[in-house]
C-alpha cells in the first residue's frame, strides 16, 4: 500500500475530503448522491499516475476482462469515456443514420436520446409502464413505424427488467434494441446480470452512479466478431490504438486509419478507479439495499405516497430512491420542505419531451407526463447512515400526514 493510502473505510464511514488547494463548496445538507472512494481504488489510481501510462492501456484491458467475467462471458465489453458515448457507439454499430427513427423513453436522462440526434436520426418517445416506469412492448408498439431503426429501453432507478418482449416484438425487422442500464450497474434478474441477453447494453461509471469513477462507461455487445470494428470505432478509427502500437514487437507500427471513428475510450486513470469500484460492487449493492430496505420499511404505510415495486427475482443495485406523491403541487411543496430540513432531493426526470430541444419530437406519453410530475428522489449513497434515513422518512411522513 502506498504511504498516501487512506485508512480502509466501510460504506457509511466516508472520510471527509482533506483541505486542499482547490476549495470546494461545503454542503449543509445530506446530499442526494456522493461517490464512495474505496482505498484500493485510490491505490490503483496512484499506481497509474506513477506508471507513466495514463491513456487507455493495461488497466482498461483488465477492466474489460473483469466486466466480461461478471457477465460470465455472455457479453463482450468495451470501456468507454462515458455511458453517453457508449450509447452513441451502439447506435452507430446498429447503422442508425439520417431518416431513421429511434424510440426512447421520455422519462430518462438526455443521454439516452442524444445519440440518435448525433447520428442524424429522429427521436420518438414511447410511454412507460405506470408501476416500473420503463418501456414495454405495448408502449413501443404504439409508436413503431417503418422508419424505426433502434429502440432504447432504460432500466429506471436500478431494478433490472426483462426487455425480451421488446426484442421479440421487433425480431427479424432490422431493428436493434440498445439497453440503457446506466442506473442498473450490478443489478440482476433471475440471477443474471442486467442486459445479459441484450445485443447492446450500456453502463455508466459517472460519479453520481453507484459504481463510480471520475467518468466512464461500458458498452456490452453480444457479437464477439465485432470486437476489432468496435475498438476502432471507439478510437478514431485507428486499426490499432496507441497502447497496442506501443506494445507491438519490433519497430512500432504507425497510425493506420481504417475507418472514421470517435475518441470514446476510457483512460487508464478513470479505468483504475472504475476497477476498484467494480471490485467492491457487492459491498456497494449490499449497503444501498440496506438503505432502501429501511426507506421501504419506514415509508410503507405512509398514505399519499407510492414506492417502486420490488420483485423476488430481482437483486437490485439501487441508483436512486424514488417516491411518488399525489400531484405536482404537493411534490413541489415537499421538495421545498425537504430542502429546508437540509435533505437533498431531485427529480429523475422531468419529461424530455417537455424540454425545448425535444419538444418537436413525435411521441405518445400520457403516463410519463403524469408520473414525472409526482416524482422525488431522496438521498442514497454510502455516506448516508441508517439513522439519517429514519430522519428523512420522519420528515416525509410528517409532511404528508
Ligand atoms: C439513464 C441514463 N443514461 C445515460 C446516462 C449517461 O451516463 P454518463 O454520465 O456516464 O454519460 C445517465 C447518466 O446520468 C443516465 O442517468
Query: What's the architecture of the largest domain, going by CATH?
Result: 3-Layer(aba) Sandwich
- Output the radius of gyration: 22 Å
Strand order of the main beta sheet, please? 1-9-8-5-4-2-3-13
Cα distance spanning the termini: 52 Å
- Oligomeric composition of the shown chains: single chain
- Mean pLDDT across every amino acid position: 95
Q: Give the uncertain stretches in residue-range form.
A: 1-8
What sort of overall outline do the alpha carbons produce when their principal axes are compared? globular
**Helix percentage range:** 25-40%
**CATH fold-level name of the largest domain:** Aspartate Aminotransferase, domain 2
- Give a list of the ligands: pyridoxal-5'-phosphate
Largest sheet: 8 strands, mixed
SSE run? HHEHEHEHEHEEEEEHHHHEEEHEHEH
How many separate domains make up the residues? Answer: 2
Q: What is the number of helical segments per DSSP (H or I, 4+ residues)?
A: 13
Decide which structural class fits the backbone.
Answer: alpha/beta
Roughly what fraction of the amino acids lie in strands?
A: 5-15%
The number of strands is: 14
CATH class term of the largest domain: Alpha Beta
Essential attributes:
2 domains; Aspartate Aminotransferase, domain 2; globular; eight-stranded mixed beta sheet; disordered N terminus; binds pyridoxal-5'-phosphate; three-stranded antiparallel beta sheet; Aspartate Aminotransferase, domain 1; alpha/beta; 13 helices; 13% strand; 401 residues
Structural commentary:
The protein has two domains: 39-279, Aspartate Aminotransferase, domain 2 (3-Layer(aba) Sandwich); 281-400, Aspartate Aminotransferase, domain 1 (Alpha-Beta Complex), CATH 3.90.1150.10. It contains 13 helices and 14 strands. The chain has helices at residues 39-51, 58-70, 83-93, 110-118, 137-143, 164-170, 227-233, 242-247, 268-279, 281-299, 328-340, 366-372, 386-400, and strands spanning 76-80, 101-105, 122-126, 148-151, 176-180, 188-189, 192-193, 200-204, 217-221, 305-307, 314-315, 321-325, 362-363, 375-378. The strands form three sheets. The chain has an eight-stranded mixed β-sheet, sandwiched between helices. The protein has a three-stranded antiparallel β-sheet with strand order 7-6-11, with no helix packed on it. Strand 6 and strand 7 form a beta hairpin. Helix 1 (39-51) packs antiparallel against helix 9, helix 5 (137-143) runs parallel beside helix 6 and helix 10 (281-299) runs parallel beside helix 13 (386-400). The radius of gyration is 22 Å and the shape is globular. Mean pLDDT is 95; it is low at 1-8. The structure holds pyridoxal-5'-phosphate (PLP). Pyridoxal-5'-phosphate (PLP) binds next to helix 3 and helix 4.
